[in-house]
Amino acid sequence: MVLVSILTATFVGGFDSSSMLLAAPALRSALGASFAQTQLVVAGYTMSYAVALMTGGRLGDAFGRRRVFLCGAAGFTLTSAICALAGSPAVLIVARVVQGLTAALMLPQVLAIIHASLPAPVRRRAVGLYGVTIGLAWVAGPVCGGILMAWNPFDLGWRALFLVNVPIGALVVAGAWRAVPESHGPRTRLDVTGAALLGAALFLLLSVLGRSLVLAPPHAVAALGAVGILLALFWARERRLEARSLSPVVPPRLFREGRFARGLAAVLAFYAGNQGFLALLSYYVQDGLERSPLVTSLLFSPLSAGFALASAVGGRIPAATERRTVLGGIALMATGLLTFTAVVSCAPVSLQLAVLPAALGMLGLGQGLVAGPLISLVLSAAPAEDSGAASALLLTVTQLSHACSVAVIGSVFSALLGGASGVAAHARAASATALVVVGVCLLAGLLLRRLFSGSGAARKSGDRVAA
Prior knowledge:
By secondary structure, the protein is mainly alpha-helical. It folds into three domains: 1-120 and 154-180, MFS general substrate transporter like domains (Growth Hormone, Chain: A), CATH 1.20.1250.20; 192-248, no CATH class; 254-459, Up-down Bundle (Growth Hormone, Chain: A), CATH 1.20.1250.20. 81% of the residues lie in helices and 0% in strands. It is built from 17 helices and no strands. The chain is globular and about 65 Å long.
């Protein structure tokens, strides 16, 4: 019951964000929203969520993970209903920002609850399931969102994407209220100044990535400089607090062993490639091939099915073969991406729609083999007492990777397309952009290889000490 409650919350949080990728045209027509307002509906959630994640993780450590999880889940359910009832773009944008804040209270508690509430023999498997849930939510969101909008129950249109959260959220609250035990981290005062510095830095960084939303291009360099200054001030404060045995927002000791930092770099590259390709596929199919959101979502379905299948199989692979399995998953991802590039470049549209599902299935299989073990390996490097902060930091990195990849891939695709139109121009731009995603995928493979090598060395050293 504990796992069902908290993993359902994890799925809903990721699904809510990824399903909105296909809802932008419907939002513009139904609410009369501008392009910038529509983008803010998507980005408002992501920005507030990413900015508040670290604070949410520390609040759970200080005031009780069950209590903060329940407050976040109840708030997420309520704001989902408000989003569904919004009658103007302004109301929807504000509701989405608040919804992101409630998600930042709810989701960082999940891994901390796993570490605090589950017995050691099942903890590793539970963390693997958590990684699978994150990935499945991001690949299933566009599929289920497109199908739900095509089905259009009770003529709700895009509102159904928010209303579906309400009964699921109520079940999450009820299950967690009954089953999840209370746990705490160190009971220390929240570092409000550190949280404000980190939040301001993340907000500016995400604003630069979504440059058309908040900042004009001439201001981007100055904003990046401000981000660097804020992060330097934040890190100096965190080191000072740790030296005084106080509780920083991000404990510097997380990075001392090295594996955690290398793991976060691998997470950044892995999720950047995944989300960047999802955005590219959505651009190409809807704008280039002029297919509906339903057709786009159906093309996503082999990717989702492959991810689910590989995740189910990968969870049973022995630890001794985990390294080969993960690197094999990266190779499978690269093969799927290169197949996509070849098909888009050379095949007619009718053949593309027939062959692309096979390429996307390979990509999903590779992603499923990598996601769970990667999350488990990263979090195993964090001390148990900092599980809330480590979980929040991991989620922050995944959100930054999503924002970076969508911004960069969208910019590359737009620059290569220029002012051209038609299937051929979109195919050239999509195939060239896909090669950029292949490069990101291979970078993730190199980082993972180094991460597993370091993990193996650490295990051997531990064995020698034990002997």
